[in-house]
Amino acid sequence: MQLQARMQVRPAGPRRAGPAPVRAMAGSRFADVAQAPPDPILGVSEAFKACTDPNKLNLGVGAYRDEQLKPVVLSVVKKAESKIFARNENKEYLTIEGLDGFRKATVDLLLGGDHPAIKEGRVAVVQSLSGTGSLRVGAAFIARFMKGSTVYLSNPTWGNHRNIFGDEGVEWKYYRYFDADTVGLDFKGMVEDLKAAPPGSVVVLHGCAHNPTGIDPTKEQWASIADLCKERDLMPFFDVAYQGFATGDLDKDAFAPRLFVEKGLEIMVSQSYSKNLGLYGERVGALVMVLNDKEAATRCLSQLKRLARALYSNPPTHGARIAAEVVNDKELFEEWKGEMRGMAGRIERVRGELQRALEKKYPSKDWSFITKQIGMFSFTGLTPVQVDNMTNKHAIFMTRDGRISLAGLNSAKVEYLADAIVDSVRNH
Ligand SMILES: Cc1ncc(COP(=O)(O)O)c(C=O)c1O
């Protein structure tokens, strides 16, 4: 529209020499750009901020809160920062692949230190912009070097997966994951769908604490998925955003990617320190490729760098220094593990409290799924209409898929939340 309006004011007849006269334009050349929908997760936080109800509760975003529902800066992060400030380091650019100490720390966390793949130089790692940016670098790599491959996402999954792969022009499809009847894993459906995926497809797997369902495969099921990936020549891409948050133990939560590597599979992994180190806004993470061949790893790293250079040039320094300081320092590392257990433990406690409150208020319904699920979230099974009631009537903000972040709940609010859930389930 705007372009047409501009074309109409061009004078008729032969062009005169010299620059065209500058004309004032009414409105914007972008007047026809459509309004994008609000982000389903971050949009909830915006709505929460705007709400004036004193009882309001934000269970939308997956960010840890303490018992007073305040954001937390971990004690190890403050200690690491003091050390970093004392060194008075400069703010020069990092290399494209990022801080070496951070890259080492990140791969150690993923595979366990001294892993043969590290010693044999078969791991390519680029520090990137937290989990999201790392997934995006991975998506760009798939778009360029696995042309025509389809990416399989669990149904449901973290909403941004679709955007990340879709915006890179990568075709994606769902595989079955959630069984609404059992409020558990639809393992049979998952296996059927992955068996039907063409060889060379990519399967995105949540390393632990599946978002949004909180339902992970068992160890035996992970082993079957790994075997299936091998048989069908599927490329596993692990999204590890909650290492330490599922069980409170970094090693236990890395079980699945480690098992796949042990079974000889090549894997891609996106790692994030947003949740486990509470570095949300610092954007700290990495894209890792564990391969079977050193030369391939070297070449893949060069290509990851080529992609990152064009996307954001090089990653930020501060958060990477913090993560490296914490993971590479024995004392801080132990202290971090304790703090992580504290966070995971608080979530587990409110999980139990919520289940017991619901069992008391609505005993005829089975609420046991709440403590069967793990990680930050509970997938409540509330329908979009029931979620609207939660928000509009009770000022409880959550995503419309029925997910609640238990990291945003404290003991004082358990009864209030349970009453709102019972009202929504009974009356809507
Ligand atoms: C499954 C999953 N992957 C990736 C991310 C990315 O988070 P970030 O970019 O903050 O690391 C999140 C955040 O909520 C997530 O839940």
Short description:
This protein has helices at 2-8, 42-50, 75-87, 100-111, 116-119, 130-145, 160-167, 187-195, 219-232, 250-253, 255-262, 294-311, 318-328, 330-361, 369-372, 384-394, 411-427, and strands at residues 57-58, 123-129, 151-155, 172-176, 178-179, 184-185, 202-206, 235-240, 267-272, 284-290, 377-379, 396-397, 403-405. The protein is of the alpha/beta class and 428 residues long. Strands 2-10-9-8-7-3-4 form a seven-stranded mixed beta sheet, sandwiched between helices. A two-stranded parallel ribbon has the order 1-12. The chain has a two-stranded antiparallel ribbon with strand order 5-6.
Overview of this protein structure:
The protein has 428 residues and is an alpha/beta fold. The protein has 2 domains: 42-72 and 343-427, Aspartate Aminotransferase, domain 1 (Alpha-Beta Complex), CATH 3.90.1150; 93-328, Type I PLP-dependent aspartate aminotransferase-like (Major domain) (Aspartate Aminotransferase, domain 2, 3-Layer(aba) Sandwich). It has 17 helices and 13 strands. It has helices at 2-8, 42-50, 75-87, 100-111, 116-119, 130-145, 160-167, 187-195, 219-232, 250-253, 255-262, 294-311, 318-328, 330-361, 369-372, 384-394, 411-427, and strands spanning 57-58, 123-129, 151-155, 172-176, 178-179, 184-185, 202-206, 235-240, 267-272, 284-290, 377-379, 396-397, 403-405. A 7-stranded mixed β-sheet has the order 2-10-9-8-7-3-4, sandwiched between helices. Helix 8 (187-195) runs parallel beside helix 9 (219-232), helix 9 packs across helix 11 and helix 14 (330-361) crosses helix 17 (411-427). The chain is globular. The protein starts with a helix and ends with a helix. Mean pLDDT is 93; it is low at 1-13. Bound molecules: pyridoxal-5'-phosphate. The site of pyridoxal-5'-phosphate has 13 residues, from helix 6. It comes from Chlamydomonas incerta. InterPro entries: Aminotransferase_I/II_large, Asp_trans, NHTrfase_class1_PyrdxlP-BS, PyrdxlP-dep_Trfase, PyrdxlP-dep_Trfase_major, PyrdxlP-dep_Trfase_small. It catalyses: L-aspartate + 2-oxoglutarate = oxaloacetate + L-glutamate. Homodimer. Residues 9-20 have a biased composition (Low complexity).
